[in-house]
Amino acid sequence: MNTMHRHNSWIAAIGALFAMAYQLAGAAAEDGRFEELSVYLERNVQDRDAEIRFDVTGATDGLAALKVLAPGERTVIDLRTPDSKLGVRSLTLESPEPDDDKIVRADFPAGAYRFEGTTTKGVNLRGEAQLSHVFPEPAAFEYPRPDQKDVPVTALTLRWSVPKGIEACAIVVEQTGSAYEIRALLPGSARSFTVPDGFLRAGKAYKFAIGTVAKDGNRSFIEAGFTTARTR
Asked: Do 128 and 36 meet the contact criterion of CB atoms below 8 Å apart?
């Protein structure tokens, strides 16, 4: 994603942290089910790129094999861990991010995705998750405005607006060129977030991103920069 290419890493982290669609809470290997399955689309509105993400958690025992079939029985994932005794319990997979989301949608059609797994102890797991091609409308920045300067370093409350029907808002604030960052998942009704005092530093550049998360798991991100006021 061109505007902030490091965006790949923190958006990926958001996806892992905020995977919330189609959770199968309480599922156990004895039932032949995965603990969690999700498949969803994610886009960056400014960069106009998009990706598909799969989040899978097997059971107590690791997975020795995982297969995912798209609508039409086309295999889109086929993973194995033949020489591992532990296998892999949880994994997140994401596609490349072409500039045109039509490419992603063409390769991964909407509909039911069938998950088939085998644990290291030979237990077979089955599950299904639905993929939608509908993206939620993005949020809109209210404060700070994009590229605003002289933003206060204390008592800063970020504000935004979102369309109706949003399940959650994913918030990221990061200091450019450093490892300092804040991530938060808020209810869809949230319209503000106060940055804890002590996080922001005077005269530094920051990135602020908001992701609207739909009930089906799809999400749309917008991002902007702002600069804090220098010490006088």
From this structure: no
Residues 6+ apart with CB under 8 A from 158: 143, 144, 171, 173, 192, 193, 194, 195, 208
pTM across the whole model = 0.82
Whether residue 159 sits in one domain with residue 108: no
Range of the domain at 99: 7-131
Of 131, 148, 170, at which residue does a domain stop? 131
Which CA distances in Å does 92 have to 77, 131, 144? Answer: 12, 16, 33
The pair phi, psi for residue 124, each rounded to 5°, is -90, 130
13, 33: one domain: yes
Residues 222 and 176 both lie in one domain:
yes
**Nearest-angstrom CA–CA distance, 14 and 37:** 16
Query: Which tokens in the block code for residue 122?
Result: 């030979």
- Contact residues for 94 (Cβ-Cβ < 8 A; gap 6+): 12, 15, 51, 52, 53, 54
Task: Answer yes or no: is pLDDT of 40 > 50.
Answer: yes
Compute the distance between CA of residue 31 and CA of residue 25 in angstroms, rounded to an integer. Answer: 12
Q: Mark which of 131, 150, 182 sits at the end of a domain.
A: 131
Q: pLDDT, tens digit, for every residue of 55-112?
A: 999 988 999 999 999 999 999 999 999 899 999 999 999 999 998 889 999 999 999 9
With CA atoms as reference, report the closest residue to 41 among 27, 57, 24, 54: 54
